[in-house]
Amino acid sequence: MKALFISYLLLAVTAVTTLAQKQSSEPTTPVVQQFVHSLNPEQRQLAVLAFDDQERYNWYYVPRDRKGLPLKKMTPEQRTAAMQALQTLLSTTGYQKITAIIDLENVLRVVENRPPNDTYRDPENYYFTVFGDPDQAKMPWSFRIDGHHVALQFSMLNGKLIGFTPAFMGSNPGVVRAEVPQKGTFILQQEADLAYKLLNGLTEEQLKKAVISDKCPGDIVTTNTRKASIDKKEGIAYGELTTAQQKLFLELLTTYLDNYHVTLKNQQLDKLRKSGLDQLVFAWAGDREPGYGPGKGQYYRIHGPTILIEFDNSQNQANHIHSVVRDLTNDFGEDMLRLHYEQQHK
Question: Which residues form a coiled coil (predicted)?
Answer without folding.
Answer: none
